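Customer ticket, subject: "Can you confirm the structure for Glycosidase?"

Message body: Hello, I'm evaluating your service for our small team and ran a test protein. I'd like someone to confirm that this is what the system normally returns, since I don't have a reference to compare against.
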Amino acid sequence: MTEADRNLHRTPFAEDRLVITPNDIDLSRGPLAGHIDCETYVLGAFNPGMTRLPNGNLLLMVRVAEALRKPVFDDAVHAIRWDEGRYVLDAWPLGLCDTSDPRKFMLHGQGWPIMALTSLSWLLPVEVSADGLDLVRYHYDKAIAPQGSWQCYGIEDARISKVGDRWLMTTCSVSPERHSTTLYSSRNALDWKFEGIVLDHQNKDMLIFEGKVSGKYWAQTRPLGQLFFAYPPGSPYHAGPSINLATSPDALHWMPCLEPHIRPHSGTASTARIGGGTPPILTTVAGTRGWLSLWHGVEPKQLVGIYRTYWSLLDPDEPWKVIATNHSPLIEPNAGLTEPIKDQMYLDDVVFSTGIVEAEDHFIVASGEADLACRVTHVPKSAFAPS
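Agent reply: Thanks for trying us out. I re-ran your input and got the following:
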């Protein structure tokens, strides 16, 4: 299907807007305030986890990427790091660094890929109206910041699921020790308790199902790596990062599922690389009941690629089985949304969906747009038609 065909057949969204941008964040109220004798700014306020609060409003758990305004000085590139309750700057000689990606810099001469970040991320709970479109309150007093060496380079990309009467939030914690998945729990979705590391190095985009299956917690995971074995010739799949499944008796101890899950399709450039998006929710789409999973597919282009949102419906009792899907994107990057803040853009062609809540005739989907801002889209249930 060509781009023109996609535009012709795409279901229009009644509501699709940016609700939080970098201009809305007050760093003087953030966890880094007063720690660093250098100016910082908001590189991005994006990739929000989302859930319904007990009062009916929605909560967006916004990733705030706070960066140095001038990271290069004294012939070095500087990065922010948490260190025993304070924040410090590390200096890396310019000659060792590749700074072509605005989000990170690579260090040469280490024998394997080593990177450092141009920002440190922390999480800001933002309360919005029941439809996700109007701001209600910024909860700076409940911000989630690094608290140990396992997340000394920041906390990223929250995903929130309500299972029973408890909220569970997975995050990516970044450090030189490991790139791990950490878990937080809450009884009200505002006051969060750190539960520990639940997945070890380079397992990203962990999404806990909003409900148990056969008495167990289920989650989508996405292990990374530098080596993948080839599928046989003629396979409908190709090698690369895929979305896997794991189960747990307590949401703390996870065992990988034997069955494969969502895999990149051969011959489909727009899903050459895939990963999890929103926590699966049990619902009915296109007349079929199952776990609705929104995920991202990446089409190779220049340095970062084009990120789009796709969907799959999973069997309600055997969630490794995909019972409906569509190879056309559900949500695409929208340059028109970021036009008013285009002077702050450092990436384009990226939408990264991270939260979903069901409404009467539509789903409210929260996404990061261009690694810069929070986007809320009302996706009609009629948009979910299997290919």
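A couple of notes from the result: DSSP finds two helices and 27 strands in the chain. The domain at 3-383 is CATH 2.115.10.20 (Tachylectin-2; Chain A). Feel free to reply with more questions.
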